[in-house]
Amino acid sequence: MTQHDSPFDLLARDDEDHRWAFGTGFTDPLAGVDTAVPEGVDAKALAAYCLMLGDDALIFSHRLQQWITNLPELEEETAVANIALDLLGQARMLLARAAGADPSLAPPVLAYPQEDRLAFFRTESQFKNVRLAEWADGDFAELVARLLIFASWRLALFERLRDTADPVLAAIAAKGVHELTYHRDYAAGWVVRLGEGTELSHERMQRAVVALWPFVDELFIDHQAELVAPSGVRGEVDAVLDTVFELAALDRPQVAALGAVAGRRGRDGAHTEAMGYVLAELQSVARANPEATW
Amino acid sequence: MTTVEDHFDATIGGNRRIEPRDWMPDGYRATVIRQIAQHAHSEIIGMQPEGNWITRAPSLRRKAILLAKVQDEAGHGLYLYSAAETLGADRADLTEMLISGRQKYSSIFNYPTLSYADVGVIGWLVDGAAICNQVPLCRSSYGPYARAMIRICKEESFHQRQGYELLLTMMRGSDAQRQMVQDATNRFWWPSLMMFGPPDDASPNTARSMAWGVKRHTNDELRQRFVDMTVPQAAKLGVTLPDPELKWNAGRGHYDFGSIDWEEFAAVVAGNGPCNAQRVAVRRRAHAEGAWVREAASAYAARQAQRKRAA
């Protein structure tokens, strides 16, 4: 049994063993990266934008995590967990970048690393994710419809961000492009399969697209902080969605956009009622233990 | 003239592997299917107690670790079901056996996870016990299972290390965290010992399974190894194992430990543990609610195949 003892012997020596993907060696997702903000880049705007993109990924990932153990097939368990992990990884890097570029963003909960202060100790109105990210999927059709819309939109943004002036954000985007391409493919595959599957699945798929469509316009509204104007990717994203809808025999919905709250939407910190419950769940253990180290 | 049965016996006797194409006794086939299926079911049901904490993990790094671990468990389930299929079993039938309660999974997953420390303790004790059980199965006489176990054991050791590392970190943290770790250890210690199954004198199938090379050590041997391995780890961690009779026996060269509550074990195996109904209900509901998706995928695949033929 000596091979079983060896991991503990390694730990007992307290050496920092970096061979393990999530091992004891690092806690900062940008460890080893030069995080100085280059001249000519507005650090506050960069931070605000990274926060938006990071919050989108964090909250979308949370909704996918809720699906684990509830999916229709084991292959989907591994695929959805994989996508949730990718988005969580993007969130970690983007939140760390945001806090690095503008340290005033992270609440001063000193026991926690910066990415965690942002994730667990901000209040609801400080979250800048689009409202699509916080939607609770009613069934698998809504999951794949929402993922198709989200990944197509985010991929278009990340492709452009690969050339942005901040090398850290550019690198995060370059890595994300590969991941998001897979997410979009996975979602599109299922939208087509369900749209063209049985009568029941077609009906559910169409209903899901209609239910989610009010959240789409918000994705393309420009804000000052954005380094890539989302209005500029609308045509490209529409073309992708139209192609998938045609293959899936689905109608593009004609429904009105979700209303704003006193002129504010997700990016302005105004969310749907579902967001409070997302944060209650996400933040509960960390908030109950502000002195703890994990 | 040698018969297929002689060939089977010689393969087992020579410590070589039985492969799917080989003749095997019906009893061997049934035993190995049951063994692999129960292991696969355990991986899939085992996603639930830990999955319970993914959305509430108190740091993003711990969340990533836990999510990846639960994903690994789904992956283990997948290739174990595939290994069972090499014997002629069908994944859908095995799933049906699980959700109808006709096949079992490891009793440990019928206990609840009540704090984040449970994630660490499951890694340390439950994965630790699973590894003790499973490493010998890398030498199972059934080839596809043995090969699956090599990969699974590597990933399990990784999970165990991560669990232990979480506990080390928590023990260096606040008093509340240390209490959480001790409480989780108290709750999981005895159920972990039960993971090795009934004592040898109450384990009727052990002899035949060992003769066939699908089991390599008795339940009590493996349980003793686990105790011997874990006691120094607990000391290093700074937690107390909840057994006043636990002490080193120089004469035996092993730790002595108190008697296990076999009535509790029997009750949990019979379906009356704290979470049996809940675990199976979750699996059953996911399967039922996913039926329309699987049907749609099959219908779509059939139509695509038809189009290809027509083209």
Written overview of the protein:
The complex is a heterodimer of chains A (about 290) and B (about 300). By secondary structure, chain A is mostly helical. Chain A has a single domain (about 40-290), classed as Ferritin (Up-down Bundle). In chain A, about 55% of the residues lie in helices and about 0% in strands. Chain A is built from 9 helices and no strands. In chain A, helix 3 packs antiparallel against helix 6 (about 165-195) and helix 5 runs antiparallel to helix 6 (about 165-195). The model of chain A is unreliable at about 1-25 (pLDDT under 50). Chain B is mostly helical. Chain B has helices at about 5-15, 25-45, 45-50, 60-85, 90-100, 115-135, 145-170, 175-195, 205-210, 220-235, 260-270, 275-290, 290-310; strands at about 245-250, 255. A two-stranded antiparallel ribbon of chain B has the order 1-2. In chain B, helix 6 runs antiparallel to helix 7. Chain B is globular, with a radius of gyration of 21 Å. The interface between A and B is large, with 66 and 69 residues.
Layout of secondary structure:
The complex is a heterodimer of chains A (294) and B (311).
Chain A lengths: L1 H11 L30 H23 L8 H28 L12 H8 L18 H22 L5 H29 L3 H14 L21 H14 L26 H15 L6
Chain B lengths: L3 H10 L12 H20 L1 H5 L8 H26 L5 H9 L17 H18 L8 H29 L3 H20 L11 H6 L7 H19 L9 E3 L4 E3 L5 H11 L3 H14 L1 H20 L1
Antiparallel strand pairs in B: 1-2
Helix pairs in contact in B: 2-4, 4-7, 6-7, 6-8, 6-10
